[in-house]
Amino acid sequence: MKEAEALLDNYLKGMISEYADDALDLETTRKVSEFIASNKEAEEYLMKLQRLRSLTREQLADTEDDPTLDLRMMNELRLRSYDRTWWERAWDYRMFSPRVAVAVGAVFLLLVFALFTVFEKPVTILYQDTKARVMQMGDEAKTDLGERGRELSEEIEDLLLPGDATGDRKPKADQPNTGLVIPREGCPA
Amino acid sequence: MVEIPSNLLLGCLRGDDSCWQELIQLTGGHLKRIARVNLRDPSFAEDVLQETYYKVFRNLHKLRDRSRAMPWIVQILVNECRMLNRKTKKETTDENEESLSYTLAANPSNRGRDETRQVLGGLLKQMPELYREILVLREVEGMDYTEIASALKIPVGTVRSRLARARAMWVDLAEEVVEEGQLLDLYYEGGGSVA
Fold this sequence. Notes:
The structure holds 2 protein chains of 2 kinds.
Chain A: H1 2-20, H2 26-38, H3 40-61, H4 69-83, H5 86-92, H6 98-160
Chain B: H1 6-14, H2 17-38, H3 45-59, H4 69-87, H5 91-104, H6 113-125, H7 129-140, H8 145-152, H9 156-179, H10 185-188
């Protein structure tokens, strides 16, 4: 019951508030006016409200103008606008609203997915081919180095072994002639 | 509610200093009044005003409907006031100091205009921020429902209901103040219709 009374009270106060602002239509204004005339509490509430409004407007709305306010504000505005760097000023004129930014982000993501779908196969093939080629080159390099190392060790072995009486060395039958001529002391090549 | 001419805004957009000065002359007084009543500490009113004009300066090119320039500026100001009120937490101390001054100036014949103003300002400051903002815009600045809705970014229906609740609370608080012997002007001076 009390809640209903409070609701009714709020409703009536709302109506009186709009009546005071002259914001009701003609028919409602007439009804509210009749109600106020017949109800002492409502009349008293409206009277207090109007007096308070009048006093507030009279006292608070008519404050003296500050003659130097605009100059102070302008100075501050000038100082603050000069403080900013060119990129801050450029950022002020950015045209992206949040909606546009989200739309651009979504389009970018879709583009990335589309590109991935189209180029997934060729990119995978390219990757595998490259990997195989790199491995092959690695193996080849290992083999070449092994052979060259063997040749060099044989040549060193030949140099260390003693030659025949004339000083000439005969290549071993089972060894291939590498064609390498090693200069000796007192015997120009 | 003050109307800002479109050509003045265009001049401001072009960066014309004299247009900016004119805009500040036109709106400064109104904005300062709103700030002084809305802020817990009115001494910050000019700081808030500076911040508001700086934001207007930076964002004026984004304003699409130039006929709604003033509600837009008021909206920036109200937001600045809210932010500053959140930062300043010394409300209770200030209120205690103010209530002492009300008691000293209880007799209206001994009370000057400034003191009455202080009592009325203090009355508004006792109200929740939500109600105080709407009362200041309507009762002090005389903005209509549409302008208030635009400035506070709320529907017109909400403006009506919130204003009604705010006024009910306002009248109750004023009644308490009158009972304490303050703000006797309400009884001694009959206020005319504002509507």
